[in-house]
Amino acid sequence: MGSEQRRVTFSLFTVHCSLFTLYCSLLCVLCFFAVNRDAFADDWSFTPSVSLSQSYDSNFRFITTPAPGTTKSDFVTSLSPVLSVTGETEQTKFQFDTTTNAQSYIENPRFDIVNENATASLTESWSQRFSTSVNFGIVHDSTLQEQLESSGIVTQLTERYLYTFGLGGKYDLSESLSLAVSGLAADTIFPSGTLPNSDVYQGTITPIWAVTPKDNIGLSSNFSYTDYSIATTIRSVTETLFWQRQMTDTLSFKLSGGYYYTMLDFTTPALEFIPTPPFRRFVNLPEKATDSGFVFGADLTKDWSERFSTVLSAGKQQYNDVDARSFDSTFISCTARYRLSEVTTLNFLARYNTNDQLSQGSLTVDYYILSPSIETNLTENLLVRLSGSYEYETQTPGNVNLDRYRTWVDLTYKWPRFFASH
Length: 422
What we know:
By secondary structure, this protein is mainly beta. Helix content is 10%, strand content 65%. The longest helix is centred in the N-terminal third of the chain and has 33 residues, at 3-35.
């Protein structure tokens, strides 16, 4: 058996083991609740749903030219069962969710994949002032779509495993002053080796002052450390001051601004001459670089009527992509929702991202997306949704121009909550 066959076999074995582990975990949680119902007597439930989707993608890998033996466009069929367990008392809340998404490509079956996303969280209120939380997650998916939604930067359609673990705490120092602390550790693995693996560690401290019943201000101090398997590390410190105001019952506004400082350690290939044949060789020389800049964020949420609402957002941040590059990333977006009737709703999304690479290159990426959708409840538990999107991206230097359009229909059935206490 060749190395590629062994890798694929191992990957499939890992997927099935992960699925088995997830469902066994869910079964254990359900058994725990069934045996210890009094422990969560206030409210606990089990909620399943399933979605069937058929889509057409004119450029499902978001590339210029397909590789030999593949097509640029494809029809994709997806089946997505979702399971959710909730247990809650006055002091404790437990949440367990798992989503499995099986995707089948008609023209390119080599890209068939079973995506998984499992998360669990436990929040404990130790007193009226002090609460803590712990959460973990396991994700198995392909990288392309997640990074497009985060930054608009195109990457390879590559299998990925992501493991996360987080801790958090909040303490109310007084009726108007509180302190929130959180930490996150994440491990990203690409089985194919086409993208570098990475470890991420983040910590955030945020004091919040309720100036008035409608106004909150705070200062967020964030530190992040990303270590890539290709001898690249990116360390960032960000200080952000924010103000949040509930102007009216239908209008809220949040504004933030601050500064980031980034330190990069990486290697650069260089030609070295040696006294023996072939008299030269390439070596990786360590280098360091620093960057800094302003960050900001703004969100304006408005309910124009009982039927129509909008959200306007804009922001700028430092972003690390899966290729071990750091970008100065800016975006502006608008979402709108209009309820045509009691059962039918229109949705619309428009977003623009621009990304300027820091230190290691001069790449600029501009990304645009327009995405309308319409959904209607055929019955109380059955929902159908028709969606479409058009995406366009330019990369300079290189004069790279990419675009694609997608259309898809989803049919979702959600059962009522099982075993709910009320």
